# Entry
Amino acid sequence: MKPSANEALRRTVGPDRIALIGAGHVGATAAYALMLRALVPEIVLVDSNTALAEAEAADIADANALARPARVWAGDYADAAVASIAVITAGGATHGSQDRLSVAAASAAIVSDCVDGLISAGFSGILVVASNPVDLMTMVALRRSGLPASRVIGTGTLLDTSRLKQTLSQALNVAPASIEGYVLGEHGNSEVAVFSTVRIGGQTLDQFCGGKASPDLSAISTEVRDAGYAIVEGKGYTSFGVATAIVRICEAILRDEHAVLPVSTLLTGEYGLSGLCLSLPCVLGAQGVQRIVTPNLEPSERHALTASAMILQTAFAALPVMTSDDRPDR
Ligand code: NAD
# Structure
């Protein structure tokens, strides 16, 4: 029997390959964005809903002749095992104004399942986690996989930081890419817009505003924090922003850029915090997180970061402990 187009594309060994585990809104959009960016020649979609993964792969592959050619197919964990990067986007989705932390238990079971599939198939690359609540799911993936902490990275506040730059850009009439600054801590309600890190042309916000009315920072923090809810309210989910954050992280890793990006990583004493994942600026390269950067924070920002960490620690403690010793392949 002639193999299907999808079967014909499957290979067991390939050059640079990225695997998306979860082919829902986030996974499929990330696959499409990765294809357009021409980062890797092979993109595999893995989903428990194989019909969905096949349909999304075929839809993206339809663009091959018009965009950047890449082999995009629906595969399984054996296909994902040889990928340089696996991105977990499977997880419980939130609805309306539902807090991301409320889907932690459902997501933890799904993320553990995906990690088990990858590790038992022999995956040893870099794991990027986008499933929400992303800081807790990065922790779950880290504990469950047994991979080194530098190789398990959550998309964290990269998206929120992009939203901060976009919002400041409108308030200050400066291109978002010309604004430096970070949202740190939880990707969620306790995130911290760290305005003391903002620089425009080397100037702080106060210097840049030069005595003229400064933007309302409290209103900007709230707008950035609630941006995801507003999008979910309108279209039911978010996809383009997070997909672009996934692409940016993959790009920094595959090109060994040593780019500084705010991503969720295991803390080991930074600001007196350890044993949990949250976002701080990280140097990202081929080895994953190569260094964690700790900018000077105003006392109120440091206090808010500690409060964010406490919220995550309490939420993680409420999840069943899922370590690599609990994996069925052990
Ligand atoms: P979705 O429901 O469209 O897609 C989830 C997919 O996961 C589905 O296709 C489902 O079949 C698949 N899946 C479920 N269990 C699975 C399993 N055990 N193995 C393999 N596949 C499985 O949801 P979405 O809108 O794509 O969102 C996915 C996740 O990303 C959610 O947790 C969401 O909250 C999160 N998200 C994160 C960010 C961020 O900034 N980190 C932004 C948006 C969404």
About this structure: The longest strand covers residues 274-285. The chain is about 40% helix and 20% strand.
